[in-house]
User: Fold these one by one.
Assistant:
Number 1:
Amino acid sequence: MRVLISGAGLAGPCLAHGLRKNGHDVLLLERDPAVDARAQGYRIHINGDGDAALREWLPAEAYEQAVATSCVAGGGVSMAGPDLRHVTEIELPPEARGITVDRLTLRRIMLRGLTDSIRFGAGFSRYELLDDGTVRAFLTDGSTAEGDLLVAADGFNSGIRLQLVPHFSVTVHSTRLIYGRTPLTARARELTPPQALEGFLGVVGPDGRRLALAAQRFRRNPADLGLPAADDYVMWGVAAPAAVYGPGFFELGAAELLGLAAETVADWHPSLSALVRLAEPGYLVPAGVQVAERPELWPPVPVTLVGDAAHPMPPAGISAGVALHDAGLLASRLVPGAPLLDAVRSYETEMLDYGFAAVATATRNHAGGH
C-alpha cells in the first residue's frame, strides 16, 4: 500500500513511521522548503494517548531520543490573576499525564528518520479520485503524486478537508494570540513565576486578556544526540480580544508583535511584561482561534483527516496529543490489511467521537482560562 501524507508536523511523521515499519510505502508532502524553514512551535504537552502512539509507532531509538530531550518533570497546571498574588492549582485527570517536549526538537527527531520519504516544497493544491480506486494529489511545485490513500495532516486550514468535506463548519473566534519564547537566562529566571518554571501557569485578566507561561528545561540538550543545540526557554502566549490588537494584526512584523504583546500586559505584575520584552524576535508568531463543529460522516473515499485538519480546537494543551492519537489509531486500522475503505471508515468513526469530545473540552478550558 502506498500512502500520501500531506503535512510533516507531528502527526504526519508519526503515521509515516508506523506505516513504514510495517512494510508500507509512504510519501510525506510538506509545503515548507526545509525542516527549519519557519518557527514550528515551542513547548507542548502530549497526553497519555499521544505518548502511547509515539511509543508504539516510532522506532525505539527515536522514542528514546524524544524522552531524553523532553522537559524536566516538575509542577502541574496553575492559574493566577494579573497581580500573581493568589495562585490556584488545577487538578488534572490521569489521562492528561504524558510527556512534555519541545515541538521543534521532536519534529527533527522524527523527520531525520524519514529523509527518503519526504518531499519538501510540495504543498497540497487539489486531489483527484482515479477510476482504479487510487488518488492523485496535485502539488504546489507543479508535480503530482499517486497513492492508495491520501491523509490530510495539514492543519487548521487544510486544503484537503476543504475539498473532502466542503460543508465542514469552522468558527473563527475574536480572540487573537501572540506566541513567543524568552531564553531562560538568569534574569529571565528571576522574572518567571515559580509555577511557570516548574509547570504551566495561566494568568487571567477580567477583560479577556490572558497570558500562558511555561518553561522548557531540556533533560538533555538535543546537541548530545546530533541535533541542533537548543537552550532552555520560557514559552509564552498573550491572548486578547481582536479589538485590543487592532486591524492588520496578522501583517505585523516581529518587533511590532513583541511590543504589542508586552504592552498588552503592561498594567499587570511588572515581571510579566519585562519577561515578554526579553523574547527572541525570530520566534514571534501571531495566531487566531478556530473551533470546529462535528460534521456528518462523508462518503467513504481513499482520503482522510488527522489532527487539526480533522478537529480544529482552541489552544488548551491537548491538541498535539489528540493528533498523535489520530495517527496511531489510523496506523492500527491500516496495518492489519483490512479492505482500505473499511479500515478508513472504522478510523473516522472512532476519531470523530473522541476528537470532537476533545474539541468540547478544549473550548470549555479556553473559555474558563485553563
Note: The chain has a mean pLDDT of 94.
Number 2:
Amino acid sequence: MRPKELKHWTTGIAHLLDLPMGAARLSGLSQWLKQICPVDHFVLFVYQGNHRPLALFDTFTPDKRKVYVDDYQCGPYLLDPFYLACTRRQPPGLWRLRQFAPDHFYLSEYYLAYYQQTGLAEEVAFFVDLGDDTTAVLSLMRATSSCAFSRDELQLMDCTQPIVEQIIGEAWSQFHADKPRPAQDLDFKIHAAFDHFGAHILTGREQEIVRLLLRGHSSASVAEQLSISPGTVKIHRKNIYAKLGICSQSELLGLFIRELAGPEMAATG
C-alpha cells in the first residue's frame, strides 16, 4: 500500500472510531468499507441459537428490506447457506456465499424467490464470533449490474477484519445490554415447524430429503448426504410430491412458507 493510500485508510479508521457506538458507527463502517471496494448493499444479521436472526443494520431500500429482511426473518433464513454455516460454527473470517452453497443452490426455488427479487449477483460476508452460541454475519452484496468481488478486493477486505469485529462486537454489546433475549421464546416455533414439516404424512427419511431439497441440494447431492442411490432419491421425491399433493419444487417451497406462517402469525398476533 502506498503512503497516500495508507494515510487515507488510517484517517478513515480514526473518523469511524469517533462516531457514537451502535447504528451511527455501523453506518460509518459500511461507508468506510465502500471506500475500499464498491458494495451495493450491506446487512448485518446476528444468529443466536434457535432464535430468529436479528437485523442490526442494513442499507436496503424499503422494497428490498421487505424481501431480504422482513420475509427472510419469517423462516426462509433456515435455508440460507450463511445461516447453516453459523450452525456448524464456521470460524470467523471473510467468506463467499458460494463456498457454502449446495450444488443446486443457484437453481433452487429459495434462490429464485429471494435472491433474484433483490437483484443480487454475489454476496460475501464477515463472520464474527460474539460468544455464547452467537455469530454476527455482515453481508456485502453486489447487484447483477456489478462484477464479482475480485481476489485483490477480497484480500483488502480481509485486512479490515479486526475493525469489523470491534465495531460489531461493540454494537452487539450495546444492543444486548438494552434488550436481552429470553432463553425460550416464540421464535423456537419456527425451528419446530421446519423440523416437523410434513411429519403428519411423510416418513422420517422423506422429511430429511425435503429439508435437503429446500436448501438447494440436487438429487445426486441428497444421495451423497444420506448415503443412498440417486435412483432412490428420485423415488422418494416422487412419493413426497404425491403425498403432499404438489407437482414441483416451487410448490414445495410455497407449502413450506405457508406452514411457517403459522408460528409467525402466532408470534405477531
Note: The radius of gyration is 20 Å.
Number 3:
Amino acid sequence: MLKVIEEEKTTSLLERMDDAGCVVNFVVLSLEESVKVNESIHRQALVRLHEKLMKDSWDWHNSLIKNPEYKSSGDPAISWELDKAVATILTQEEIHNLILTDGYVRGPLALYGYFREPPYGTEFKGGELKAKELFHEWRQILGLEEQDDIVVINWVKGFKKEWLDNDDAIPGREPWSDYFDEGLEWWGVWCLTIWNPTRRTFSALIASTSD
C-alpha cells in the first residue's frame, strides 16, 4: 500500500543535513492509486517511519559493538505505541508557518527554526543561503508545499516539556514513544505526516534531541 521511494535522494539529503548538524529524520512514501486516504493511512506512514528509525538504530548499535572497548547499553529498540497518538490536522495558515524561512523564530510550528538551531547548532558551508537551499530541497522531497489540497498532521501536539512551562501543553496528552524523551526535556519534539495528493506521496518526519 505504502512503498518507500526516493531512497537515494533521501540518503544523500540526510547525510548532508547530518553533516550540518540537523537532527531531523524522515521517510518518503508513495501510495497506490486505488487507496483512499484517511487517518489510518497517515498512521501507516508512521509505522514505516518507525521501521526506518529501528533500522538506523540497529545499524548504529551493530557498528558500535564491533569495538571491543564498547560497553553495550542493551537493546536499541524504540517504543512506538501508535494507538495512543492523537492526530491534529494543521490549518492552511499553520502549513504556511511550516515553510517560512525569513525572520524565523523557534515557535511551535517554526520548522525552519528547529531545522536551523538544534541544541548544538548547525554549520552550513555557504552560511544562511546554503541553509535555506537545503531546507527548500528537503521541503520539496517531503512534498511540503503550500497548496490547498495538502494534508499535514501533527502527532505530538500538546506534549509537556520537563524543564519549561509551555502554555500549549494539553493535560493528559502523553508521549507515545520513548523517542521523544530527550526532546521533551526542553528543546521540543516534532512528528508530522504529509499527504501530497498531486504527487500521491506521503512523508513522515520526526525530531527529538537534547544537549
Note: The longest helix spans residues 39-64.
Number 4:
Amino acid sequence: MDILAALKAERLSIADFLDGLDDHEWDVASLCDGWTVRDVAAHLTMSTRTTLGGTIKGVIRARGDWNRMTADEARRLAARHTRAELIAQIRETAGSDRRAPGAGPLDPLVDFLVHGQDIARPLGRSRTMPIEPAVAALGHVHGSAFYGARKRLRGLKLIATDADWQAGEGPDEVRGSAADLLLLATGRASAVPHLIP
C-alpha cells in the first residue's frame, strides 16, 4: 500500500466531509472525550504543522500529559481559525509527508481514519473506511505501545470479518469489520458496543 497516497485521499475526503457539515454540527460532541467536531478538525491540521520545539513547550505547559497537551492545542487552534480556514489547512497539506515529532509513517493515517469516525458517528453520518488502509492502521495500532491496544485488549483475539487479518491471543474472540476493530483498538469501545464479548 502507498501510505502517502492513502493519507492524501483520506485527508481530502475528511475536508470534503467537514465542508458539508452545518454550523451546529461543528459544535456537536465527538467520540473524543471533551472534544467537539470543531476541536477534532483543528487537531487534524496539526500533524503537518507541529514542530519539535512547539511539542516540547506544549508538553511542559501540560506538565508532561501528552493527551492534555494535544487537547489544549486543538482547542486553541479551533478558537483561532474559522471553519473554512481549518478545512483549507487540511486540503493544503493533503499530500504532505511531514509528520509530528516522533510519529511514524502510519500514525497520520491512523489519525485521519479514526478521527473521521470520531466526527461522523456522533452526527449519525456514515464514513466508509477504505479496507486496505484500515487493515494497515489496525495492524500498526495493535503492535504499537503508544496506542495501548495490547494492554487494553489483553486476552482477546481480534478477527476482521471483512479482511484476512487477526491478532492477539486469548480465550475470547472479537469479530468485526477492520474499521470497528480499529475503533476498539484505539479506545473507542463505546462506539462499537456490539464488539465487546
Note: The chain has nine helices and three strands.
